[in-house]
Amino acid sequence: MSFLDYAPAPESRAILSLRDNYGLFIDGEFVDGRGEPFQTISPATEERIAMIANANAADVDAAVAAARRAYDRTWSKMSGRDRGKYLFRIARLVQERARELAVAESLDNGKPIKESRDVDVPLVAAWFFYYAGWADKLDHAGLGANPRSLGVAAQVIPWNFPLLMLAWKIAPALAAGNTVVLKPAETTPLTALIFAEILQQAELPAGVVNIITGAGDTGAALVSHDGVDKVAFTGSTGVGRAIAKQVAGTDKKVTLELGGKAANIVFDDAPIDQAIEGIVNGIFFNQGHVCCAGSRLLVQENIHDEVVERLKLRLSTLRLGDPLDKNTDIGAINSKEQLERIRTLSDIGVAEGAERWTAPCDIPENGFWFAPTIFTGVQTSSRIAREEIFGPVLSVLTFRTPAEAIAKANNTPYGLSAGIWTDKGSRILAVADQLRAGVIWANTFNRFDPSSPFGGYKESGYGREGGRHGLAAYLAPAPIGQSSTGRAAIAGAASTAAIEADASAPAKRSRAAKPARTLQNRSAKAATKGSKR
Amino acid sequence: MSRLAVPKTYKLYIGGAFPRSESGRTYEVLAADGSFLANAALASRKDARDAVVAARAAVSGWSGATAYNRGQVLYRIAELLEGRRAQFVAEIEEAEGVTRAAASAQVDEAIDRWVWYAGWADKFAQVVGNANPVAGPYFNISVPEPTGVVAVVVPQDSSLLGFVSAVAPALVAGNSVVAIASERFPLSAISLAEVLATSDVPKGVVNVLTGSPAEIAPWLASHADVNAIDLVGAGALDWISLEIDAADTLKRVLRPESGADAAAPALGRIAAFTETKTVWHTKSLR
C-alpha cells in the first residue's frame, strides 16, 4: 500500500430519506405527471435512485398557470421586505440541510462529495442569502427607481451543477419579484425535488416556484409557452441557439449561459506550483463538466515540457472513484451519453495526430468513468481544441509571445472564461483587456461568488448571472413617469407624467393587451436535446 | 401566591463584557408613570475611553471578515431579536408607557431594519464603488472601506428602534461602534447588548454606554482614536461644540436629526462611515 492509497471513507447515505417516486412540484404540492415516468440513477453504480414524474405539455400549462396565479395574486403584490424574508428562510434551510443536499447531489450527479459539500451547497446558500438582501433594495439595481418584475420566468438548467444552477436561477428571479417554473436536467432532478420540500418548510406561497421534471421536450414546451415572460437557460450552445430563434419576435426577455472552451494561459514567469494546481482545478474540477472549464491550456513554449511533466505527476496522484468517498478527487461521468461523447472526441484527438496521455487509475466496474487525460501537440484547428468536450480532457497548446497567446485564446466561437498565470500584474490586466471572455481568472481559476457576475461573450451566450447584473436580468425599468417614486406627479409635472404614462402604455406589458403571437411555436422542437452546459 | 420577580441588573457593554461603570455611579431609570424600573450605569469618561480601546481592537477582525460573513452575522442578530420579541415588547411598554401594539410595531421595525442593513453588507460596495475609465493604460477601481471606530449618540426618544437605526448602518461596512444609549430609555439597549453578546458579533464590535450623553459625548467627540461621530440623537445637546471638537481630528460627522424619521434607513448612513480607496495598476503586455 503506497502513501497514495487511502482507506475508504464514504459519506453515509443514511442522512437521506428519499422517496421511491417523485411527482412534479406545482402550486406548492407534489402532483403526478402525465408523461411516462423515468428513473434517475447513480452514475457511479447505475443503480436506480428513484422514479421521477415526466411533465407533458398539459403539465407545463398547469405549472405556468400556477406561476401566473401566484404572480398576480401574491408575489407581485408582496413587499420586497417580505420576499427577502422568504429568501433568507430558504438560505437558512439550505444551510441546515447542507449535508443531506450534498450527499444527494453526489449520489445523483456523480461529483465527489468534497465538491458538493464544500463548493456546490455552500454556494447555493450564499446565492439565496445574497439575493435575499436585494429583494427590498431594487431601486439600487441600476435600472432607476421602482423597477418592475417581468412576470413568469421559465428556467431550464443543466446537470453539471444541478442545485447550484437552480439557485443561480431561482434566487434573483424571486428577489426581483418574478415567479418561476424551473425544469432540472433529466439526469439530475433529485436535489431540485428535495429543494421543493425546503420550499414547503419555508412556507413559500404556493405557485411562486414550480419545479417540473422531464427531458428536452418538457424544456422546449416550457420555454416556448405563451404564458412565459422571461427565459433563462443554462446548457449547450446548440440548444441555446434554438431557444434564441424560438423566442425571436416575442417580447420574452432571455438570458443564455452556454458552452465554453476556455483558454488557460500560463506565462513562463508564473508561480508554477500554483499554476499546476490551477490548471488541474480548471479542467478536472467536477470531471470537467464545467462550462467555464480551462480546457485549452496555452503554455509558453519554453516551459511547456516542465509544465506537462508536472501535470502528469500531479494527475497521477488524483483518486478516481466513489463520489461519496471523502478522499475522491474525480467522480463519475454524469451519463452514458456524455461518456460516449468524451470518448468519441478523445478518439478524434488521437486520429488528428495529438499525443494522448491518460492518468493511471483503476476504473470501477459499474458506472460511467473517464480517467483524467491530457493531449499534447494539439493544433489550433483540431476538434479537441475547438469543441467543448465537457469532460476531464485537457488540450495543451503553446505560444511564444503575449500577442500570440491572446490571438490563440480568442480563436474560438466561445467566450465564457479564461485564465492568466503570471507574476506580472500589469501583464495580467493588459491581457485581460484583450481577451474576449466574460470572466477572467488571474492566478486562480473556477472561482464563483454570488456578488460576481458570470456569463459569456460570443456564442457562450448573453446576460449575466450573479451580482447586480444578475438581478437586473429579472427586472425592467419602471414605466416612464413612474420612476421617481411618484415625485414627478406630485411636483406639478402631473399632466406631463400622465401623458407619458398613457403614451407608453401600449408598448409596456399589460397582460390583457399582449399582441397575438404568431411565432410562438417556431422551432419549438429544435430544443429537444438534453440540456447541458 | 404570586411569585416574587428577580429583577435584572443593567450594566454597560464594553469589549464583550458587562462591567459596571468604573465610577461606581448609577442613575434611576423611571417608567412613564414615574415608578422605578432599574438603576442603569452612569458611564464616565474612563468608561468611554475603555470602550474606544475595545472598539479599536475589534476593527481589524470585523473589517477583515468577508462582507458575506458580516452580512450573515448581522442577519443572525435579527433572528435572535425575533426570538426575544416578547421581552423587548414588554420592556418598551413599561419604559415608554405605550400600548402593546405600539411597542410591538417598534420591535418589528427594529428587526426588519437589521435585516435590511444585513443585506447591504455584501452589496453596498457594488453600489457606491465603481470602476473608473481613466484616460490611460491603467486599471482603476474605487472601493469603500470602513473608516474605523464610530461613536454614536443614538436617537433619544425611543428604546430600541433609534438605537438599531443608528448602530446597524455603522456596522455594515465593518466599523466598530461605541454607542451612547438613550438617556431616558437605556434598558432595551442593554438588553440588545445581551443579544449581541450571544450572537456571532465579535467582542468589542459594539460597545454600549448608558448615562448622560451630555457628559460622555464630548470625550468621544474629542477622542483621537475615534474616526467618526454620528450625532443623530444629539439634537438636545450642544452639538455644535461636539462638531467643533470633532474637527480637531477631522472626524466624519453626521448631524442631528429629529422626529419619527430620524435615522431612517438609508444607504447614505452606511456610506457616511466609509473611506473610498482608489487603486491604480498599470496595464502592459511586457
Automatic annotation (TrEMBL), chain A:
InterPro entries: Ald_DH/histidinol_DH, Ald_DH_C, Ald_DH_CS_GLU, Ald_DH_N, Aldehyde_DH_dom. The active site is at E257. Residues 30-475 form the Aldehyde dehydrogenase domain. PROSITE patterns: ALDEHYDE_DEHYDR_GLU. GO terms for molecular function: oxidoreductase activity, acting on the aldehyde or oxo group of donors, NAD or NADP as acceptor. It comes from the Bacteria. SUPFAM superfamilies: ALDH-like (SSF53720). Belongs to the aldehyde dehydrogenase family. This is Aldehyde dehydrogenase (Acceptor). It comes from Agromyces cerinus subsp. cerinus.
TrEMBL record, chain B:
Keywords: Oxidoreductase. Pfam families: Aldedh (PF00171). SUPFAM superfamilies: ALDH-like. It comes from Agromyces cerinus subsp. cerinus. GO terms for molecular function: oxidoreductase activity. Residues 25-254 form the Aldehyde dehydrogenase domain. PANTHER family: ALDEHYDE DEHYDROGENASE-RELATED. This is Aldehyde dehydrogenase family protein. The keyword Transcription does not apply. It comes from the Bacteria.
